[in-house]
């Protein structure tokens, strides 16, 4: 144990202090989908994202991370206090040491443009698709459709 503490003390002077390397003032967000760029290196206060390890918030000086987005709502807290919410079906989020964040979504739609009845209809169709699926591939595709549709309905409500 004493050897481990000595090694930590010896190495602590050689390991760069991450908090010194990061900027705390701004979070630089790039958020895009195949057909559109929603934010291009915009300075924002915070971003909340849905991931398979659970939803989490991203603030300046967040630990560098790479995560997969699950279907759900991304909330962007802008510097002027405005909150913008987008439904994403899937994608990735990369958080870099310099407090820059890249959100790459397969689909991104403003939540306020969603139609709850259309979302419920999609869910119903996906459930019917699962009921009629005969192969493992068809069942997996139907299950993915159900997961996205359920998240879409939840985002609408």
From TrEMBL:
Its main location: mitochondrion. Keywords: Acetylation, ATP synthesis, CF(1), Hydrogen ion transport, Ion transport, Membrane, Mitochondrion, Mitochondrion inner membrane, Transit peptide, Transport. One of its GO terms (molecular function) is proton-transporting ATP synthase activity, rotational mechanism. Gene3D superfamilies: ATP synthase delta/epsilon subunit, C-terminal domain, F0F1 ATP synthase delta/epsilon subunit, N-terminal. Residues 114-155 form the F1F0-ATP synthase delta subunit C-terminal domain. Residues 28-108 form the ATP synthase F1 complex delta/epsilon subunit N-terminal domain. InterPro entries: ATP_F1_dsu/esu_C_sf (IPR036794), ATP_synth_F1_dsu/esu (IPR001469), ATP_synth_F1_dsu/esu_N (IPR020546), ATPD_C_metazoa (IPR048937), ATPsynth_dsu/esu_N (IPR036771). SUPFAM superfamilies: Epsilon subunit of F1F0-ATP synthase C-terminal domain (SSF46604), Epsilon subunit of F1F0-ATP synthase N-terminal domain (SSF51344). It is found in: Mitochondrion inner membrane. One of its GO terms (cellular component) is proton-transporting ATP synthase complex. Component of the ATP synthase complex composed at least of ATP5F1A/subunit alpha, ATP5F1B/subunit beta, ATP5MC1/subunit c (homooctomer), MT-ATP6/subunit a, MT-ATP8/subunit 8, ATP5ME/subunit e, ATP5MF/subunit f, ATP5MG/subunit g, ATP5MK/subunit k, ATP5MJ/subunit j, ATP5F1C/subunit gamma, ATP5F1D/subunit delta, ATP5F1E/subunit epsilon, ATP5PF/subunit F6, ATP5PB/subunit b, ATP5PD/subunit d, ATP5PO/subunit OSCP. Subunit delta, of the mitochondrial membrane ATP synthase complex (F(1)F(0) ATP synthase or Complex V) that produces ATP from ADP in the presence of a proton gradient across the membrane which is generated by electron transport complexes of the respiratory chain. ATP synthase complex consist of a soluble F(1) head domain - the catalytic core - and a membrane F(1) domain - the membrane proton channel. These two domains are linked by a central stalk rotating inside the F(1) region and a stationary peripheral stalk. Belongs to the ATPase epsilon chain family. This is ATP synthase F(1) complex subunit delta, mitochondrial. It comes from Moina brachiata. The lineage of its organism: Eukaryota, Metazoa, Ecdysozoa, Arthropoda, Crustacea.
């Amino acid at each position: 144990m004493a050897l481990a503490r000595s090694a930590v003390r010896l190495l602590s002077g050689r390991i760069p202090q991450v908090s010194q390397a990061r900027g705390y003032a701004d979070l630089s967000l790039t958020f895009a989908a195949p057909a559109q760029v929603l934010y291009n290196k915009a300075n924002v206060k915070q971003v909340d994202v849905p991931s398979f390890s659970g939803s989490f918030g991203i603030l300046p000086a967040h630990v560098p991370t790479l995560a997969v987005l699950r279907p759900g709502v991304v909330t962007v807290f802008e510097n002027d206090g405005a909150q913008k919410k987008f439904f994403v079906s899937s994608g990735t989020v990369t958080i870099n040491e310099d407090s820059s964040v890249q959100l790459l979504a397969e689909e991104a739609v403003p939540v306020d443009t969603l139609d709850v009845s259309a979302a419920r209809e999609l869910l119903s169709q996906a459930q019917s698709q699962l009921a009629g699926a005969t192969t493992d591939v068809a069942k997996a595709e139907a299950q993915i459709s159900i997961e996205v549709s359920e998240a879409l309905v939840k985002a609408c409500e």
